[in-house]
Specification:
This protein is mainly α. It is built from 13 helices and three strands. The chain folds into two domains: 38 residues, no CATH class; 237 residues, Methane Monooxygenase Hydroxylase, Chain G, domain 1. A three-stranded antiparallel beta sheet has the order 1-2-3, with no helix packed on it. The protein is globular, with a radius of gyration of 26 Å. The model has no long low-confidence stretch (mean pLDDT 92).
Length: 311
């Protein structure tokens, strides 16, 4: 006979708390509680989540492909949420709070950058076993990714055409297209703080692609030349720059992963594949924050520059 306790005979203690039936049991020396209301599975909708992987082939490597892209979509959903939170704080001139949120977005992006390494374990042979089953389905059709581009400031209205058959996605993209982007909110915050931002940059047709402006570049350069004098705006500029820095790294890792898996084949959605992803690396969200760096210079300090200070 075993002296081990029979788990089926463990005592469950029942009670009512706040009108909800509550349960408690001692398991391996720990007091574990749960109730008939909100559970872990209900809160996270795990049944729906775990039943959302529907391969279209019988090839074993398709599951990796599906889960990898589903997790990307979840992270993008969170970035959309957090970006709107940051924009609301910027609009209310709560720049420190916005900075904290942008730090979180940057951390999410860094995680997404590393996640490409999981997909990169898919060899060309692995992918080709199920690629034909995907037909014309492609990441080009990710309406959340396009919404994130619009929200950060890269407005390309013609790309909404891809979602013509999805009325909900089309409406959401159209709404985001016609609203100020993160960069638009940032420039308005600069103007409220006294920076010399042209009026046509803070009152314009938000659906139009943003065009770089020398005056905006000079405003950023003035802030960066004397950060102590403009610290809140300087800190905001650096946090915004970090978002594009990591987004571009994500794009680069995406491009290299695609090159590793399919080479220079065309994408399943008809794009030029790697060549299209390479072109995306030249697209800027916050152009003057990058261009002004080229024109910055340090103040001349100290003695004669012709004399070596070290003997």
């Amino acid at each position: 006979m075993s002296d081990k306790p029979d788990p089926d005979k463990s005592t469950i203690r029942r009670s009512i708390e706040d009108g909800v039936e509550t349960f408690e049991a001692t398991i391996e020396g720990e007091t574990i509680q749960w109730d008939s209301g909100l559970t872990y599975s209900r809160h996270l909708q795990t049944e729906q989540l775990l039943n959302s992987q529907t391969p279209v082939s019988d090839k074993p490597d398709e599951m990796l492909f599906i889960i990898m892209h589903q997790t990307m979509e979840l992270w993008i959903k969170l970035m959309l949420h957090e970006t709107r939170v940051a924009m609301a704080d910027i609009s209310a001139d709560r720049l420190e709070r916005a900075g904290k949120t942008m730090d979180r977005i940057a951390t999410i992006m860094r995680h997404m950058i590393h996640s490409w390494e999981v997909l990169a374990t898919l060899s060309p042979h692995d992918f080709l076993t199920f690629r034909g089953f995907l037909r014309k389905a492609s990441g080009f059709q990710s309406h959340q990714y396009r919404e994130l581009e619009f929200l950060l400031g890269l407005k390309r209205p013609d790309l909404i055409l891809v979602h013509d058959g999805n009325e909900a996605a089309k409406a959401r993209l159209t709404e985001t297209l016609n609203a100020p982007s993160l960069y638009d909110e940032v420039l308005q915050a600069l103007a409220r703080a006294g920076a010399d931002i042209p009026q046509n940059k803070i009152e314009r047709d938000w659906s139009e692609p943003y065009e770089p402006d020398d005056a905006v570049e000079q405003a950023w350069q003035a802030i960066y030349t004397d950060p102590d004098q403009h610290w809140p705006l300087y800190a905001l500029g650096e946090k915004v720059t970090a978002l594009e820095y990591y987004f571009q790294e994500w794009r680069f890792k995406h491009m290299k992963t695609v090159a590793r898996v399919i080479g220079h084949k065309h994408g399943t959605g008809g794009s030029s594949g790697v060549n299209y992803l390479v072109k995306a690396l030249d697209l800027d969200f916050f152009p003057e924050l990058w261009s002004m760096r080229t024109h910055m210079s340090a103040k001349r300090e100290g003695g004669d520059y012709n004399e070596c200070p070290v003997q």
